[in-house]
Amino acid sequence: MVLGDSLSAEYGLKRGSGWVALLEKKLASEKMPANVVNASISGDTTSGGRARLRALLAKHQPKLVVIELGANDALQGLPLALTQDNLNAMVQSVQATGAKVLLVGIQVPPNYGRDYGERFARMYTQVAKANKVALVPFMLKGVADVPDSLKWFQADRIHPVEAAHPIILANIWPEFKKTLR
Questions:
Q1: Nearest to 3 by CA among 46, 58, 34, 61
Q2: Whether 156 is catalytic
Q3: Among 42, 62, 135, 140, which residue has the fewest nearby CB atoms (within 10 Å)?
Q4: What's the whole-model pTM score?
C-alpha cells in the first residue's frame, strides 16, 4: 500500500502512468505478484495520512506500506515537529500490524532557506533511524536536482510529468525490493 500525496496520486497524469502504477507492473515483470493499493490523495499532509491510516490498515491489511508524505506540510508551513511526530506515529502504527515500512522522503526547494531545507531532509533520516525502517531519502533525485529540471515538471513546477515517473520508480525500487523480501 502506498500512502502518499499528489506525487503518488498521479496528479495531472493519465491514470496508470504514475510511479505507483509502474511499481505494480515492475512487480509483475519480476514475477513478484502483488496487489498494490494506491491510497494517495492529492494535497494530503502527514496529519491527513495519520488520520486515514488506521482504517486503511484494517481494510487492506498490507504486508508493506510505503509512506510518501510531508511535502504539503512544508508547502503549508506546518511545524517540522508536527510533521515528524505524524511520520513517527504512522510508521509505528504500521509496524504494530506486523507490516513493513518504506519511508520515502522529499526535499524542499531552496527558496525555503538552507537551514529549513536541511532540517526537513534530516527529519526523514531521523524517523527512519528511530523506527529502524528503510528510507528513500529523496524520491525526486535525478528529476528536481538536475540542471534541466524544468523539463521534468508540469507547468506548476511542482508535479512531475509522466516521463519523470520511471526515474522516480528507479529511486524507490531498490529499497522497496529489499524491504519486500
A1: 46
A2: yes
A3: 42
A4: 0.97
